[in-house]
Design goal:
427 residues, alpha+beta, 14 helices
């Protein structure tokens, strides 16, 4: 059996300097009984091999599961120890390393041909991670909302919401950044903060940013214009004067683009299920120069998309669906069909990134709910997921079409206890 775990260690150490990251972490504890590098390495390995809680990781640690990978016998340490370490960790060190991973991957031309039709596309969206009525499983940073039970009883629930950004389209769909939604603010405020951070972290982090209708407002649109990235945003018909103006124009003419049996499946990755099951008959009306959106710095482009899902014989599977999209770039920069494909692939952040992080990487699990600990653990998971995806689609690129992520994680878990090289060994 090939030592995939050993390959994984060598790859992340050589290319992404994971060993240097571990060695450079600062420990906020006084006279610790177990080194910080050991604690974080154990947590990282537990996440990569899909252990869903600190208790599971502690159990495996006491069984000696990590000893060969760490080249030491861990005699101390517990789930409580992990939680204490996370509480005093410097979250900025984890943020910085996640940024470094994305930066190195871009410099190594992981997205040299873009992620979709030659464009590097980032999707931005919000998600809820945890929800509880227990004060012991919440912190001061949790948002609060009133919930009415079936018996009419009203209770206060605490929940953690995040806005995230990830590459969509051709893999690897790396997590570019996450931002916590603070109490008393909406997702839009957190999204503006995240966009500022993405610009400061990476400068040219993407060609296109795609978002749902929640973010269709002047501050967000102006932010993308200031950053010189193209915004592709879905809008709702009933909410915008701009859409009504566009509809008045489009209703009197034929569509600008008509396509039959179009798929949004990725040409590169044959296991990409987005669009593999369905094809579409598409009509698109496309016009530029709309100035009726108040406080937006630049005239906008509006697309009306009428699509019907069809089977491989061309038979309609549903009634035509109409969607409106605003774009901050002209027809000479990005085509109408590419805009339509980007609109669909925006769902990758929900169907691939958030879904996979929650289901397979325990992103929504409440490992240790203290303010700082909760945030540090999200960044550790993002780092682990990014390095795993890069290993699969870059180091094992020839096998990426054969492996499922779940299968590769199982292979790593199977070979981890037999490796003959430390996770921070650079030889």
């Amino acid at each position: 059996m090939k030592q995939r775990a050993l390959q994984f260690f060598k790859y992340i150490n050589k290319v992404y300097r994971f060993n240097q990251f571990l060695s450079g972490l600062s420990d906020g504890r006084t006279n610790p009984s177990i080194p910080l590098t050991t604690v974080i390495a154990v947590l990282f390995l537990g996440i990569v091999t899909r252990m869903g809680s600190l208790n599971q990781i502690e159990e495996k640690m006491r069984q000696g599961y990590f000893n060969k990978a760490l080249k030491q016998k861990i005699k101390k340490g517990s789930a409580e120890t992990f939680g204490n370490v996370l509480e005093v960790s410097n979250v900025e060190q984890y943020v910085q390393y996640c940024r470094e991973v994305v930066k190195i991957s871009r410099y190594n031309k992981a997205f040299k041909d873009g992620t979709l039709d030659g464009f590097t596309v980032v999707a931005l969206d919000g998600t809820e991670l945890t929800r509880t009525e227990s004060k012991h499983r919440s912190c001061d940073r949790c948002k609060k909302s009133e919930y009415t039970k079936e018996d009419g009883t009203k209770v206060i629930q605490m929940h953690e919401n995040f806005v995230g950004a990830s590459y969509v389209g051709k893999p690897p769909n790396l997590v570019v950044g996450i931002e916590r939604v603070a109490p008393g603010e909406g997702e839009t405020t957190a999204a503006l903060r995240l966009l500022d951070k993405l610009k400061s972290w990476h400068y040219y982090y993407a060609d296109v940013v795609t978002m749902d209708s929640l973010y269709a407002n002047a501050p967000v649109i102006n932010k993308t214009l200031d950053q010189n990235v193209v915004a592709v945003i879905r809008v709702k018909q009933e909410h915008y004067t701009l859409v009504r103006d566009a509809e008045g124009l489009f209703s009197s003419r034929e569509p600008d683009l008509v396509k039959r049996g179009v798929s949004i499946k990725s040409d590169w990755y044959e296991n990409d299920r987005a669009g593999r099951k369905y094809r579409y008959d598409v009509k698109i009306w496309d016009e530029e120069g709309f100035t009726t959106w108040e406080n937006v710095k630049k005239p906008l482009r509006v697309l009306k998309v009428e699509e019907t899902r069809v089977d491989h014989c061309g038979n309609a599977l549903n009634e035509p669906q109409i969607t409106y999209i605003i774009v901050t770039a002209g027809k000479d920069i990005i085509s109408a069909e590419t805009v339509w494909r980007i609109l669909h692939r925006r769902w990758d952040i929900e169907n691939k990134t958030f879904h996979d992080l929650k289901k397979y990487w325990s992103f929504g699990h409440d490992f240790h709910h203290e303010d700082n600990a909760f945030l540090v653990m999200r960044w550790i998971i993002a780092i682990a997921a990014n390095l795993f995806m890069l290993f699969l689609f870059r180091r094992l690129s020839g096998y990426a079409k054969k492996y499922t992520q779940k299968g590769l994680a199982a292979w790593l878990a199977c070979t981890l206890c037999n490796v003959d090289e430390s996770i921070w060994d650079t030889s």
